[in-house]
Amino acid sequence: MNLTRELVAAIDIGTSRTRGAIGRFTADGKLEIVAFSETLTQGVRNGVVVNIDEAATSIKTVISSLERTLNLRVRRIFAGISGQKIINRKVSGYRMTDNGEVTQAIINSLIGEAQRFAGAPGEKIYHLTPEEFIVDGERGVNNPVGMAGRRIDGIFKVITAPESYEQNLRRSIEKGGYELAGSFINPYVQGSGFLSKDEKEAGVILIDFGAGTTGVSLYYENKLRLAVELPFGGNVISNDIREGCNIIPRHAEIVKIQCGYAFSELVPENKFAQIPEVEGWHAKEISFRNLSGIIQARLEEIIEGVSFQLESTKLLNKLGAGIVLSGGGSNMRGIDKLVSYMTGFDVRFGKPVIPIEQHLLNEQFMNMQSGNLIGLLINGLYQARNQKYPPGMIVSNTPEETKVKSPEKAHGIKTFVSGIFDKAKEGISGLMTDEDSEIH
Question: How many CB atoms lie under 10 A from the CB of residue 314?
């Protein structure tokens, strides 16, 4: 009996940081995260792999840390697809019924037709969702099977991305010594852990402010209606600060995090950031108000791009909930007020809504940066469970410890995972090693 079988590994390869985790579903349906690691990302620009070798190094660093912490061997991992060329399309088709009744075979035929004709050459279809069925002109039908009617129309939401996105992701993972178990569009998975079913039913928007991209998801009537990414994120804000204040990139990033405000009305009066002397260049002061002006100008541009995408759905006046913010950029002071001011929606900060088993790693996940990784882990676990947990995804380095030798010793995965946590506690201090400079 392989007690590692219910464990799944997922990796979120962001523009700034690469994060990985191993987890499982408990018997009572909670998400249990047994290992976490992260490192700075190399070889990725605006969410897309641009250097196979460098991206492979980041992946290898993270997964190796997970393996050492748990004394396991990871073979296959789930990962996310990111990039500005994620495309949303509506595809429609119709069928005439044979006996005046809509059957499952007719619905399957409509779905098959949508899958055949939705993608352009060089694209891969990642998600296909029925938005609406129309039976003899009657709109708003969600489950038409068994209904009487002569004609059935189907309208589908299809999300595609260039095949090269996954090909380069796969090559980076294989270069690191692993296999790609499955991939998901990042804006698709972000809502899995951060949005409740009630919010998705009422209508809600999730905006993920990352370093290289800004992801946008819109749900209505519990269906994903929009999933896109804009090629702008926190890095362009840091670059604007560097150019506008004539400081080095490292200081621009630090001053953005420590002193930045998204909304100039919140900026303290007569307050300055002190930039230290570097390699003979004189120290300088930067006004918080000037800094906020640079940040707000770029954020307004990003939010305008988000609003343009949202307006294309023609659903904004139907949403019963507001906007949920996630991603590292959401830590910017006052960003919730700026987003609310520009969009007119109520705004809350994202946090995991899925029940999470309480353990020492929770601090790494109960924050706005964890949306992608939690979503990838959840969707990977769902896929693995639907496939009856394919063997060999994660294996023990000491298989003799995982064999159940008698009924008295057959404690199952729970006993094994508790042993994993003993090892995790010993090695937790080595999971993250960031060296952050400070502005004095």
Answer: 9
